[in-house]
Amino acid sequence: MELLTIADVLQLLLVGLSQGCLYSLIAIGLVLVYKATEQVNFAQGEFMMMGAFVGYQFIVLMGLPYWLGVGLTLIVMGAFGYGIDALVVRRLTGQPVFTVFILTLALGIALRAVAGMIWGFGNYTLPAPIPGNLKIGPVVMAWSSILAILLTALISVGLYAFFRFSRHGAAMLALSQNQLAAFYMGIPVKRLTSVIWAMSAVFGACAGLLLAPITLVSTSMGFIGFKAFAGAIVGGFGSIPGAVAGCLLIGVTEPFFDIAFPTMKGIGAYLVMFAVLLIRPQGLLAQIHAKKV
Amino acid sequence: MSDVLTLSNVETMYGRVMAIRGVSLKVTEGSIVTIMGSNGAGKTTILKTISGALDPFKGRIAFERAEIAGLDPDVVARRGIAHSPEGREVFPLLSVRDNLMMGAYTRRDRDEVARDMEKVLGWFPVLRDFLEKSAIYLSGGQQQMVALGRAFMQRPRLMLLDEPSLGLSPRLIQEIFAIICRMNGDEGVTMLLVEQNANVALPVSDFGYVLETGRIVMEGPRDVLLASDDIREFYLGIKGEAARGDRRWKVKKTWR
Ligand SMILES: Nc1ncnc2c1ncn2[C@@H]1O[C@H](COP(=O)(O)OP(=O)(O)O)[C@@H](O)[C@H]1O
Ligand SMILES: [Mg+2]
């Protein structure tokens, strides 16, 4: 293995950071739904894939201006997430958690098939939000990578403020801690839960739109959802800052791992997960007050 | 005075098990009504059926003359019924202040909400020291205060209270029941209270029902119930304990 120069290291760090941010966007959606309902949405990666395809539909196939296409994509995906909960998942309330696991696993498979039937099983290009690269000395960053970092930071801060200062955010916290008591307070628990699914689909779509220029749009792009999963588990699964930290850790170590062990490319994320779980089984930032039982 | 709440022949099932077997009762505006019954009699089930957490299998539930059976609990809450549940059910990771403010979630009258918050803290001054602490750190009695205060913050016209005395010391029970009486007397909140502890609940009530295995077996104004030998013996423990089997037999013989 050749020695890396400082510039190489910096370059890899930034690439890893931006990749970690994409994982984070997916993981935030996972954790939001999990905290609110204790359901795990195994189709979260496919939500991201759908976001990329819907964007491809508006921007490439229909030729709409880029940002208009993005706006429409986020609206469509928000409605999609809301509908999945309101029409399907909500009906399973009271069933074992396992039922919802299987349902969302099946949903992911179905979404891949549906996307393939509508758009085909090839690889498609979606333009980057801002084309070109930013050069700082020897380091070169694609603008879409920089955008991924900025957007993740913005969404993290926005969510913090939302839960801390807004009435609906506080109500979402309340319903995630005690659903029945939230009902008794007059909080529209069912509607807010669907809104949480909508938020999680919108964040997934953001990741999809940002990932598309890097990896191309395809029915299998949702598989990076598993890395987001690993990141969320590293972070303790119940905490959004934890999930972001876990995803960043995985994103940043990944490119170095791939260079050091080229034959094991792609499994670095899971090794990091195992390593963290061995040392801290509860994850990096597990909730201090573990749920009883 | 008009009836705020009327239950007619309500039956509630858990799967195929019927927990409530044709219960009829009414709560008059401004009163405190108590349902007494031992553990497992179905008290919690009645309250959950009223507030919409459970749907009745049969029967009608009228709140201020409108049918509310089968509505979602958040809709029932918005109609004006607050439910302070068994086991307090505070939001563990929210601060005491946020817990209380959650009660006011549906309200828009900010000034009134602030005044009601002061009222609650006046009734339970100990909560003032914990306002910014997570509710999980409170003692059982303090959590009960939060649950009661949170229900009051909804400014309900009817409050459902599920065993507010459960697990509390006699002194705390006195304190909490004094506040319940003030919410009723000073603020005009109608109360439907369920209690195993008839000793403390019955004396503050206007009217009482006795529930046994899902059925109302006796009802009457407070003074009539307090004078009844059966109530004195089995719910107030005044004449000493009778054996359980003995008690069932006698209950059936005299009350049905
Ligand atoms: N979730 C449940 N599933 C099945 N049976 C239940 C459930 N909750 C209560 N029950 C049964 O219903 C009856 C009434 O219970 P409950 O209303 O909790 O009584 P109480 O509040 O008077 O102690 C009891 O026999 C209890 O075992
Ligand atoms: Mg009970």
UniProtKB/TrEMBL annotation, chain A:
InterPro entries membership: ABC_transp_permease, BCAA_transport_permease
Protein's membrane topology: Multi-pass membrane protein
Keywords, alphabetical: Amino-acid transport, Cell membrane, Membrane, Transmembrane, Transmembrane helix, Transport
Ranges annotated as spanning the membrane: 12-34, 100-121, 141-163, 195-217, 229-253, 259-279
Keyword flag Cell membrane: yes
Gene Ontology BP term (one): amino acid transport
One CC-aspect GO term: plasma membrane
Protein family according to the UniProt entry: Belongs to the binding-protein-dependent transport system permease family. LivHM subfamily.
Keyword Repeat (UniProt): no
Organism: Seohaeicola zhoushanensis
Lineage top rank: taxon: Bacteria
Record localization: Cell membrane
Stored CDD domains: TM_PBP1_LivH_like
Name of the featured protein: Branched-chain amino acid ABC transporter permease
A GO molecular-function descriptor: transmembrane transporter activity
UniProtKB/TrEMBL annotation, chain B:
Any one GO MF annotation of this record: branched-chain amino acid transmembrane transporter activity
Cross-referenced CDD domains: ABC_TM1139_LivF_branched
PROSITE patterns named among the record's database cross-references: ABC_TRANSPORTER_1, ABC_TRANSPORTER_2
Gene3D superfamilies, alphabetized: P-loop containing nucleotide triphosphate hydrolases (3.40.50.300)
Keywords from the named record: Amino-acid transport, ATP-binding, Nucleotide-binding, Transport
ABC transporter domain residues: 5-238
Thylakoid in keyword set: no
Tagged with keyword ATP-binding: yes
Signal peptide from the UniProt entry: none
Domain of life of the organism encoding this protein: Bacteria
GO biological process: L-amino acid transport
Family indicated by similarity: Belongs to the ABC transporter superfamily.
Protein's name according to its UniProt entry: ABC transporter ATP-binding protein
